[in-house]
Amino acid sequence: MRLLALLTITLTLHRPHGVPPAPTQPHAIRLEGDLTLGGLFPVHARGPPGVPCGGVRKEQGIHRLEAMLYALDRVNGDPRLLPNVTLGARILDTCSRDTYALEQALAFVSNFVTAAAGTGGQGRCPDGSTPQRDPPERLVGVIGASASSVSIMVANVLRLFAIPQISYASTAPELSDPRRYEFFSRVVPPDSCQARAMVGVVRALGWSYVATVASEGSYGESGVEAFVQSSREAGGLCIAQSIKIPREPAPEEFAKVVGRLMETSTARGVVLFANEDDIRRLLEAVAAANLSGHFSWVGSDSWGAKPGPVVGLEDAARGAITILPKRLSVPGFDEYFTSRSLENNRRNLWFHEFWEEDFNCRLPHSDVGQPHGGPAGPIRKCTGSAGTPVTFNENGDAPGRYDIFQFQGGNGSGSYRAVGQWVEGLRLWAESLDWGTNSSSPPPSVCSLPCGRGEKKTPVKGVPCCWHCEACRGYLYRADVHTCQPCPAHLRPTPDHTSCRPTPVLRLRWGDPLAAVPLALATLGLVATAVVLVTFVKHHETPIVKASGRELSYVLLVGIAMVYGITFVMVAEPGVGVCAVRRLFLGAGMTLSYAALLTKTNRIYRIFEQGKRSVTPPRFISPTSQLVITFTLSGLQLVAVALWLLLRPPHALVDYDMGRTPDPEDARGVLRCDMAEGGTLACLAYALLLMVTCTVYAVKARGVPETFNEAKPIGFAMYTTCVVWLAFGPIFFGAARSAERVHVQTATLTVSMTLSASVPLGLLYAPKVYVILLHPERNQPRRPRNDPPP
To answer: Are 659 and 503 in contact (CB under 8 A)?
Structure first.
């Protein structure tokens, strides 16, 4: 096992590069020795349908084969390694095809089969003597193969005869199963390590959505499976589609693969687990479709740093990230290989094909002479000829150590440049990456572009890397990438809907039109009321003042002044005190006014009706009785409001619902008292009831004699007041729902109250003031007339 490892590490540390075409017939190399090592190399490429082998493969075939021959020479030339023992070899060509390789590998076990068959009898020659046979070949192990599918085929045969096998390039994860492949080891890490490294590369490039392309067979399919599994464990990476290239692809197959890749064109990153031939043909199809530069490739170790797949296809391969197990040069091998010629290398039966391919010539096909010439224990550690440790884990796998390359260049030229490494973790040198002259970052490979500000992601079912972007509208803001949430009631979203901000509070200012007009009217009303009051007080003892019922007239004037004054309270900025005063006096002035008018009207009506039946005056018509009745009626309002204040103390609030508009930019909070529309009506309800009752009595008293000179003015005043309040309802309740609604309602209410106070002031008091001030001669007591002498 140690010798196998020594030979295999030599092959691994000098890995080749290329692919040419020229069919040839396969042969086998046989070197005599005390112990024989088998060798399996893809000397030729896979041939077209019906032909097992194609053209010679220089790097993967001839170079590796020569590395084994060189290692044999080194071992046989050092007496300290195997004293008195010579190593021989039987080297076979797999032609890069697993079924053909299996046929070739049967040569390794033929002696074991013959020996087993011969134990029952040696047979006899015609003369009856025992046949003379050459001693059986002592095959102690096999080096190879390259492709995982070939190694799997061969390993299933060699395990039956307990023949150790060490591969220098097979990386399929299933070969790590010690129960099925207990005699198989390899000096390269399995694809599970490679897959983790490739996932690390993809994530480091910022990709979240990639496609995979695999060659049919154990290497490609197992590699993609390991990559998908690693991507799931890492998270944040989705597979757009997984495409498989058949074992015997038709010429048009690769154009179909490119077409399928373009079905998910945003997945520009493509992960390749394909053999060298398939990689090259895929790049050719990309170039033929004029898509060079659209795809960014991440290639497995089958691509590595080989020039073969990219020669003449530099533009299609530009920017490709490839991975390759770490390797070192074997001292002396370069000198050995460059010294080989047709004269000194006749033991390599395929060297003349390499010579013709390398020097582009044809040689006369003379026969190139072919010279004629129990597994070991589980040794797990040794040192290769390059000085590197050779180790295997419990599954026979080498530890994962990779170099990361990028193919840089274009326009017909290019080269691989080391851009990082992976040793149980990725180290990518960003400054070494080259993405072309127009970009300093890798092309995006995502299913969906990032959502804009104020937009949330709505995932596509079953594809976590794909989503639709939906804008957070109205009063919603983006709480996180997947959620829109409503702003709290006192906040509104920012213009880009990324957060919430305070909603402006709207206050009714003294200078606002909706406040200035009612205030001006109320001020004029107060001035007029003051003029009337002063006039009445100054002419307190005049007939007109006395006839109007001085006591109730003064009470009515106080009520009218209170109605005008409430406008200033309604416009003032709400607070606890202001809200309390609003509750107390919003209906108090009107109640006092209408209570006084009702008492007056009722007195007139009762006097008139009583006069029809009797000369006895009705009860409770004295000034004192009239005042008691008025204050009793108005006192009910004050008692009710006082109870309301005790049971539910007033307070100011900012109403954000009232100012909530479809467009958050127009939203406002409205500073108001806790008394809403219903509370306003409750304050006015009793006063309106008194107004209606007074109107009824005014109608009843419309036919009183002219002597009762206030009956008809009171009737006109009440009719007009009813019209005012009938108009008030539609305007007050029909105000548009907006931040200005409460201010419009306030203006409507105060103007209506001012008008309702101005009506009795104008109809009842204006004529009297007019007579008192401008026609004082009419405000004189009438002198009794003297009877003429008989």
So the answer is: yes
